[in-house]
């Protein structure tokens, strides 16, 4: 799918994930996996 993978700095990706959740809450779970688990991981998941 288009934009299935997105690259950027951690800060940019977290901001984009929050924007997507806010703009379409029915499409996304209100959780960014990897944002704070184990102090933050090298991967972020938005589903």
Structure characterization notes:
- This protein is an alpha+beta fold and 47 residues long.
- It has a domain at 10-38.
- Helix content is 30%, strand content 9%.
- It has one helix spanning 10-23, and strands spanning 32-33, 45-46.
- The chain has a two-stranded antiparallel ribbon.
- It is globular, with a radius of gyration of 10 Å.
- The protein starts with 9 loop residues before the first helix and ends with a strand.
- The mean pLDDT is 84.
Considering the chains and any ligands shown, give keywords for the structure.
47 residues, alpha+beta, two-stranded antiparallel ribbon, 1 helix, globular
Question: Gist?
Answer:
The chain has 47 residues and is of the alpha+beta class. It contains one helix and two strands; from the N terminus they run H-E-E.
Helix content: 25-40%
What's the N-to-C terminus distance? 13 Å
Count the DSSP helices: 1
If you compute it from the alpha carbons, what radius of gyration comes out, rounded to the nearest whole angstrom?
A: 10 Å
Uncertain runs with pLDDT below 50, 5 residues or more?
Answer: none
Strand runs, count: 2
Helix/strand order, N-terminal first: HEE
Query: What fraction of the residues are assigned to beta strands by DSSP?
Result: 5-15%
Shape, principal axes of CA atoms: globular
> How does the helix and strand content classify structurally?
alpha+beta
Q: Strand order of the main beta sheet, please?
A: 1-2
- What is the residue-mean pLDDT, rounded to a whole number? 84
Major beta sheet summary:
2 strands, antiparallel
